[in-house]
Amino acid sequence: MNTTLQTLIELQKIDLIILDLQQKIVEFPNLIQRLDKQLADHETKLLTMQSRLEDQEKSRRVKELEVEDRAEKIKKYQGQLLEVKTNKEYSALLAEIKGLKTKNSLAEDDILELMESIDRTKKAITETQREVEKEKERSKQVKQAKEAEQVEIQQVLTKEQEKRSQVAAVIEEKILKEYSKLLMLRNEVAVTSVEEGGVCSGCRVALTPQMFAEVKNGDYLHRCPTCFRFLYWSGNSGPYIEEA
How open is the CA angle 230-234-238, to the nearest 5 degrees? Predict the structure, then answer.
């Protein structure tokens, strides 16, 4: 196989590794952001529950004060029953007392319902607090693991970039420029194989019989007339490259 072609195949292999490593580095901040959002969602849920509990307890206190106030009025009116002079005044006080007692009875029912609701909310808060603590611990562990992984990825990336510089240095400048241009234009695949039947695996277009034969021979550097990728015969020894 043509020496330049062999070098381009090796360069493509390295570039695919570098691309994968760079993608993992780029995805790291997004992962951290997702972890932070998940934790924030749990904390927001807890704050919402705590706010609801405060509202429920406030409503209970208000109703309890109203019951106490009406109870004082009932006591006052009952004392006045002994002092009234007419049946009309007596009946009016009895009606007022009855109305206050009815309101207190309804309010006490509401207070009982609120107390049950408060109890359920407190239990839910306790459970959510446990969830928040678990999420904090999980987020911490994942971040630590991913941070360590990022260090390793960066180390491997540095080595691959050094290797790439060495491989690229032996390629003719004009060919290297064309290769680099193709990387940007052809979804990071500048070197692709020709399959049995003479089909470019990059764009799926068939080559002419003559070009196919020349690519199989491997003595010259050929490019696909349609997608312009550098071509090599898939029967030759070389790395597998995922086409795009």
Answer: 80
Which pLDDT does position 219 carry in this prediction? 85
Residue 36 falls in which region: left (phi positive, over 0), alpha (psi -120 to 50) or beta:
alpha
pTM above 0.85, yes or no: no
Cα torsion through 23, 24, 27, 29, rounded to 10: -130
Domains of the chain (ranges; CATH) run 18-168 (1.10.287.1490), 173-233 (no CATH)
| Mean pLDDT value across residues 207-235 | 92
Question: Look-up: residue for tokens 């764009």?
Answer: 203
- CA–CA separation, 70 vs 84, rounded Å? 20
- In the numeric block, which tokens belong to residue 65? 């004060």
Query: DSSP code of 241?
Result: -
User: Radius of gyration of the chain from Cα atoms?
Assistant: 40
Q: How far is CA 38 from CA 56, 124, 129, 144, in A?
A: 27, 19, 14, 17
* pLDDT tens string 114-135: 999 999 999 999 999 999 999 9
